[in-house]
Amino acid sequence: SSSLPIFSQEEVTKHRSLEDGVWVTYKGGVYDITEFVAMHPGGDKILLAAGGAIEPFWALYAVHNQEHVLEMLSGYKVGEL
Ligand code: HEM
Fold first, then answer.
1. Span from the CA of 69 to the centroid of ligand 1 (angstroms)
2. Ligand 1 pocket, residue 50 CB under 6 Å
3. pLDDT tens for residues 12-45?
4. By Cβ atoms counted within 10 A, which residue in 26, 40, 55, 57 is the most buried?
């Protein structure tokens, strides 16, 4: 079980710019990836997912379907939906 806070989708949606913070969701988890955006190997494309779910994009870019990518994402978890 997790002691992280629960966020609404509405709250997540408020975070879709570097200024307001960049949050995404993945399988019910909420991630603050603001600091990762500049390090993303796929560049600014990552901002297409800002404020919402990354699943539709990762379905298109299968390069993310690797253990090391999920491990990286887990480090940015801030809560649950
Ligand atoms: C590549 C992470 C979101 C597009 C990568 C790689 C990582 C990564 C680690 C390198 C994988 C490897 O080569 O082993 C993430 C994380 C994301 C995210 C943590 C969200 C939190 C997105 C989104 C898109 C995207 C939303 C597109 C809309 C790409 C592309 C590459 C890539 C095109 C390949 C870059 C290249 O090798 O030239 N991403 N990504 N990513 N990502 Fe993402």
1. 8
2. no
3. 999 999 999 999 999 999 999 999 999 999 999 9
4. 26
Residue 76: is its pLDDT beyond 70?
yes
Ligand 1 centroid distance, CA of 41 (Å): 6
- State the ipTM, two decimals: 0.93
Over 80: is that where the pLDDT of 2 sits? no
Residue nearest (by alpha carbon) to ligand 1 atom 25: 46
Atom of ligand 1 nearest to the CA of 31: 21
In the chain the domains, ranked by start, together with CATH numbers, are 9-80 (3.10.120.10)
Cβ–ligand 1 distance for 54 under 6 Å, the answer yes
